[in-house]
Amino acid sequence: MLNTTFIFFICLFKLIKCLNYYNLYKLFIYSANIYLSYKFTELTMAKELIKAIIFTEFDEKLGPNPILWYPSDLPESFRMAVSIKSITILSADQGLMPKSLIIMPFPSLTSKGIIKYIEKEDKSRRGGVAQSSITLLFSEIDDLIFYKYLSFLEPAFNKITQEIIKIEDIKENKEILSNQIDNLRAEILNILEDLRIKEQSVLKSEAFPEEPVEDKGIIKYKFKIVVCGDPGVGKTSTILRFTDNAFRRTYIATIGVSISEKNVLINKEGVNFILWDIAGQLKFEMMRKHYYKGAEAAFLIFDLTNPETLKNIPKWYKDIIKEVKLNHNLPMMIIGNKCDLTKKRMIKRKEAEDIAKKLSLDYYETSALTGENISEVFKQIAKKCIETELG
Ligand code: GTP
Asked: Where does a domain end: 177, 198, 219?
């Protein structure tokens, strides 16, 4: 199926190029890029999700020591980087070991990782316990899937933990460990495949249950919204909370963004949101140009527990304005996310409102974790986009 489609595109491409219809040619390239990346994502999703699995032992003399890994040709620098970072959480928390799974970013590897810590009795060690970890690396771009379904993966990690605890001497019994890691990988892929099938069979999400949009024919407006902000502020989580779609996304590898869609009714009119999410940091200006191109609105998100991320909001604002040279105002909104973390909060509402006022933008506070205000910010931005469109 993919081959026939591909050949069809190539023929069409050659024809358009011969006819020298430049704009049509550009439109074609754009659509083909989106279509093929979507197809590719759909076909390869399940088996491509796991980039690596590394089992690390925390050796008193050697420090973090990767003992076993998948795939077997994983470079040493990669293994060491993952093992060292996986142990940092223990040193930061006075050696206290998290009981449940945690997700940690590995920006230098453009990855994120699920870490399961294991503690087992070992009289030869100081304190009588040996500590180890299993780190499952996945692409930053797939983080929606792992955030959403983390709790579904927990039993598989608990099961392997029990098996590993039973192994007498891990270094002497690497084959048993290797089988366990293979089983874990297969089990997680099975779980994810089941979830993917289930999610794809659900035709629409439930963010606005009172206003469902079943029929795509009634869509009157289509808006591209770019979601901007420093790493870790909650861009991906906000999109996930709104769309509830972890698998149904398009990934444009060439510029490192993922795109989600959602239809809603605003004042009885269908609105189709196309949400663009930056993968990682999108550091290069050249790349950000593509990201902003054609944007009809933008969310500028910061983290209420991290003042640096608010300080950078005007930079994001200027960056967008520079690229999206519109002759009318681009609807934008400043969002202070993680408002559920009341004890860790370090920014007063007034501080954020002052910055929003200086930029003449509205300010909202949200929690992608609890869902507070998430549907509200999307409703408000849609209304602004419609007003802008109607002039
Ligand atoms: P990058 O992909 O690195 O740019 O990060 P991002 O801005 O997309 O942030 P992401 O959604 O990956 O969230 C970063 C971390 O913050 C994750 O551990 C989330 O679970 C957590 N997080 C996101 N939103 C909230 C929130 O509203 N409340 C709390 N408590 N945690 C949140």
From this structure: 198
Residue of the CA atom closest to atom 2 of ligand 1 = 280
Task: Tell which atom from ligand 1 comes closest to the C-alpha of 281.
Answer: 4
Q: Separation of 338 CA from ligand 1 center, angstroms?
A: 8
**For the ranges 41-45, 248-252, 307-311, which has the lowest average pLDDT?**
41-45
212 lines ligand 1 (CB under 6 A): no
pTM reported for the whole predicted model: 0.68
Identify the domain containing residue 66 by its residue range.
50-198
Q: 110-137: per-residue pLDDT in tens?
A: 889 999 999 888 877 777 788 899 999 9
- In angstroms, the CA 264 to CA 295 distance is 18
CB of 274 within 6 A of ligand 1: the answer is no
Cα 139 to Cα 137: distance, rounded to the nearest angstrom: 7
Q: What percent of the chain has pLDDT over 90?
A: 42
State the Cα–Cα distance between residues 8 and 12, nearest whole angstrom.
Answer: 6
Structure token pair of residue 15: 């024809």
Question: What is the 184 CA–ligand 1 centroid distance (Å)?
Answer: 26
Q: What is the CATH number of the domain that holds 232?
A: 3.40.50.300
The domain boundary, picked from 198, 228, 250, lies at: 198
Distance 99 CA to ligand 1 centre (A): 20
- With 0-12 / 13-18 / 19 or more C-beta atoms within 10 angstroms meaning exposed / middle / buried, residue 140 is buried
